[in-house]
């Protein structure tokens, strides 16, 4: 079945009729399937099918249904079910529509006519199988003077001289509509076309002249200034090249383009000197060799400008006339005191005087000097074996008008080469301990020896080896390659006679003059087996030495320790003397007798005068008040009776001191007691009354102890005389 999509058709709309080969008055028509009994319905008795809604092919183009014929009375099927399709015919009821409202395109500027820009697309929903229903035609409605479009939607350029620098963006309107003769419905879209840049413009200087000021001490390669040009092309198409075309000293400067800013940077290629040239003038040219000449616009492809560079004066450091400086001297040449001199000048107009100062030295030390006037001096002969060359850095400093040194200085490197003199004899290179078997056969090689020389190797030949004496069991054979072999001469060594042989070897060089050294080679005699392998060798005692520097360090340490110990002892003695001087009579308190020696025996009689004690007792004083022979004697007070005894004067002095000294503790120093508490259990503690005590101890045995205990024996061994009190 077929049906056209209708817009204003009245409903229901007859679609078709179901037919049957069965003739039965009770036949009933039924349809089943998609949209059955909703959009499509069938008349039960006649089989006519009707559409109860308007159909739109663009929504659904086909409907599949199933037709059934049954007996109305018992609902039994009279025929097999049959499927049928209802197709909706297109009536071209849709206008074409663009897939997007805005399109973008790009084309290089100055492109020829017919250059493709972009493509637009519009879609018609009608059936494309029906001729003319889905055909779309395009037209540029706005901007048609610059661009055109074909039936496929491709936009082309229509104008050959589209200049980006004049107008960079175009906005056109494109219309899509049905083929001619149909409904004529249409739609529009906007197309934004951008002109991409090409290099079609030459750079032009912004100014006709440029002026720069630069100090004369600008470094080579430093920036003097920048010249600017204007290039209306995009940055990626700006390839300005700068060059000098007129003016002197063009070889003094260089100009290069900055790839990011397109500016020309002027840099000096050599040092500038205000005193020589104070101003530079020249012309420069700017051009672009990559410009597309096919699209080149009328105008001058070259832009020219004038550059003036003014050099300003600055206080420059001195300039050395020669760099570097190199001198040669023979080693150990005592007569050579000066090697030459360095010289620098003030490049400024002031022409100040120059002072020379040594800044660095290698090797470090006072080997090479420079005077204030620049003379290179040798304070002592140089030794090539210590260093074959000496280097110093000399600074040249200007002397200002007030005598001070300028803070600006320049440096020169001075290299001193020391020529070699043959002043060192060759030395034996110590080999491993050479050993020989007792039963070694004649001609047996014991060891190969070699030598070294601190001096430069002579080009005239090798070292010469020889034995200091031929009276030995060894021979020396030269190999003529700076080595020699020590061999056995007679053989049959006896370890009982000598376990070690000391072989003096003479080694001479070929210098001028030639020098010879004597070196001792110690050869051990060992026991060997039948195969000649060493089985037993004596170990030679090795010398243990201490260097002079180590000895000096040890002596300095010992001397330092001795000085520290002496200082400590002197300090202790000084403190002891001060403490002894601090003792006065007031600190002694009740002591009447001071003994400097303990246990003096009979010699103690010199420490005090017994007659003084006796006279004091007769005057009514106690014996303990005997004066100290070492007590400080002061002038007696005026209340002492003339002719009084020494003890009385002592007591009066002590009494006067106690009365006038307010710093003493409040205890009585005038009375000396022989009994420390008569009513106490201990009773008398005084030693002066010990001789008359009631003790049962017999002290006569002291007489047997010798003369040193004679005094104690007299004091304690017998009753004292009535005339003395101890």
Automatic annotation (TrEMBL):
It is found in: Cell junction, Adherens junction; Cell membrane. Residues 6-98, 99-205, 206-320, 321-428, 428-536 form the Cadherin domain. The chain crosses the membrane at residues 550-570. The keyword Ribosomal protein does not apply. It is a single-pass type I membrane protein. One of its GO terms (molecular function) is protein phosphatase binding. This is Cadherin-5.
